[in-house]
Here is the input.
Amino acid sequence: MPAELTARADEFSALHRYAVRVENAFGGGMGRLIAVALCCALVLSACGGKREPGVVVDGQRLAVVDLHLHTGTFDMTPPRFQARIAERIPRGFKWSMGLLMDRWLSGSGILGHLDDGGVSAGGVFALYSPHTTGIATNEFVAEQIAADPSRLFGFASIRVDQWNVDAEEQLAAFEAALTELDNMVGVKLAHAHQQFRFDDPRFYGIYEIAGRLGKPIYLHTATSPNPGVRMEPPYTNPYYLEDAIRRYPDTIFILGHAGWDTLNRKLTYVDACIDLAQRYDNVYMEPGALGAKRAEQVLADFVGRIKKGNVAHKLIYGSDGPQFPGYVASHLDAFVAAMQAAGFTVDEMRLVLADNFSRVFNMPAFEL
Amino acid sequence: MSVRLLGLSGVLAVLLIGCAAEEAPVTTPVTVVGAIRAPEGVGAGRPVTVNLYHAWALEGPLRHPLEFIGSFPAAVGEFRHAFDYPVELGEGLVVYAWLDTDGDGVLCTPTGRTDIAGLTVADAFPAAEVALDIELSAPCAGPDWFFPAVPALSAP
Here is the structure.
């Protein structure tokens, strides 16, 4: 059976099991009603439709890779973040959040979001942020990207919250994940979510391993609207990372969100990111969430600064999806439109949307 | 509109707007008293920021140290602070403080590395009043620098 059909069959099987559980829990009539509502929500969530791959710019169709995608499960999400996610669900349907989230963030679900957006491939992040957004283990990510290894690439992470106690053990597990799990092409860190400073030398061993193994590090910069995230400059301002950038020239640092201060809806650290990308060969940027509705007031300014700074060759496209159905596609549409409005050439857009990813991660160019 | 459709609409309306409001976290009043100490002559008159944390929070794989409770301003010397301890959001009490020696409002910059920090774990907790002292000495150290502590080496 083709992978897509197998995935759909799995989804409907899971849906059926869940509907039976709901029906049993609430009794016949009410249970059926809730199950019907759940089905409607799931059906509506899958209504994006498959796009032709790529985006058309000046008559040329360009491939797109989305560096920044999340996986995970509701059960491994802390209660505060569960509540934040559930804000997107109408009150009476919050009980369905677990099923919806697990489905949206699974490997097959992510492939569906990519198809909806015409995106060729994506990076899927592991997460060890028990204070904030939860845990998606390296092994779990490996399972999800196995849904289609030609389109989903893993980013391993490392647990750091008890570093004085278990640093050696964590570093060994991290290195094993990067070398032994299939298709792990990079590293994901989020200092603000994981509560460790950019300038804390105790963690420099992480950068050493990534450099030695040739695995670029994506790391979150600036703030976040998520509960429990550290907002102080040592956790958010990329200049605090400059010492590590200088000490580990063989390690590639991709500055996630490119300094977009999403909490305050300002480009607070964008110029710092551009400055670092201009001065260091091993620094790149990623614009995740800058194509979101929340950033619509600053997106034109952001792409204008990238253009003016002449750093299109240092920007690797990512969305911070899937978030909700349709997000991956709408983020891409907004970002491409902003680049066109800012006067990006087709060649610059080709770099941002796919070729920078291929070059940095040492992969062949993505063909359509 | 049929009775069945009306009933369905009613049920959906209840589902959409039903549900009670979120409950406020259960708290208990706690007072922390003690002294904040810094090396003589360092940061005299400069502000100290004190952060309160649960020592541990959540269970299973999500269990983690240093769950933030709240923050208050202080100075080097004696202090006393009352707060509402969220009983169900974690366990234990850890008090962390840092001294802004250069008065720039941030615990060190990439070039300014003189601010110092310290942390004390409340040993006798839970308690309505907790007495502890905090020694500030580690430059540019976040709370995770201190807690959980490096395990003591066992005697040979």
